[in-house]
Design brief:
about 240 residues, alpha/beta, Rossmann fold, SIR2/SIRT2 'Small Domain', 6-stranded parallel sheet, 3-stranded antiparallel sheet, 10 helices, 11 strands, elongated, binds zinc ion
């Protein structure tokens, strides 16, 4: 389908799953922090985003997340976040699943967002796993939970950790049920996105992929280009 056919098709669907990845946020200037070659303070990102690294040096890991919060706090949602939010607000049956932890969908006014990799703006109690929102940019002292007075960790899904069960179930249900799936800025290398698409495809959902680079998403229609340019055309409110 071309873009106007796709827009008409999506306009007729009752149940749509939208999956967003790092590509939509990189257009707001946010680095992915998941790539194998990426480093911070001379360490590989893959060595920092692990439960073992946090256990060993919580100060270092919180400093890294403070650095990331500051980058996001200085950034703004882009035209893709905004067009998607406005489109979703005007209809029912849209599920947004994001791999991004930055919260830019919420800042664009998106009504409901399922964070499969957690959120940069949530802390989790290391004692009882309760989460709370916290918008602090810096922690002169390591954050402690109001529930148990225990050390808090970033509420992020680190390497080797399981996805949050509730969010995972919600995403699976949406994939099983979707008439269409729109993937935006995801390489398809993240297993979750690829498997949600595969499930949707088996159930005969139409798959649309928006990506400036070639992705391994098994799409029926591909729109090559920046999300900030394509999404406002594809998802006209
Ligand atoms: Zn607690």
């Amino acid at each position: 389908m071309n873009i106007s056919q796709a827009r008409r098709f999506l306009g007729m669907c009752d149940r749509i799953l939208v999956i967003t990845g790092a590509g939509i946020s990189s257009e707001s200037g946010i680095p992915t922090f998941r790539g194998a070659g990426e480093r911070w303070r001379d360490r590989h990102v893959s060595e920092l985003a692990t439960p073992a690294a946090f256990e060993e040096d919580p100060r270092l890991i919180w400093d890294w997340y403070s650095y990331r919060r500051e980058i996001v706090a200085r950034s703004e949602p882009n035209a893709a976040h905004i067009a998607l939010a406005n489109w979703a607000k005007g209809r029912t049956g849209v599920t947004l699943v994001t791999q991004n932890v930055d919260g830019l969908h919420e800042r664009a006014g998106h009504p409901e967002v399922a964070h499969i990799h957690g959120s940069l703006w949530h802390n989790r109690c290391t004692e009882c796993d309760k989460e709370r929102e916290d918008l602090a940019l810096l922690y002169p002292e390591l954050p402690r939970s109001p529930c148990c007075g225990a050390l808090e960790r970033p509420a992020i899904v680190w390497f080797g950790e399981r996805l949050p069960a509730k969010t995972r179930e919600q995403a699976l249900a949406a994939a099983m049920d979707a008439e269409a799936i729109v993937t935006i800025g995801t390489s398809g290398k993240v297993a979750t996105a690829a498997s949600l698409v595969r499930i949707g495809k088996l159930r005969h959902a139409e798959i649309f992929d928006v990506n400036p680079e070639h992705s391994c998403i098994e799409a029926n229609s591909r729109f090559a280009g920046l999300a900030g340019e394509i999404i406002p055309q594809l998802l006209a409110a």
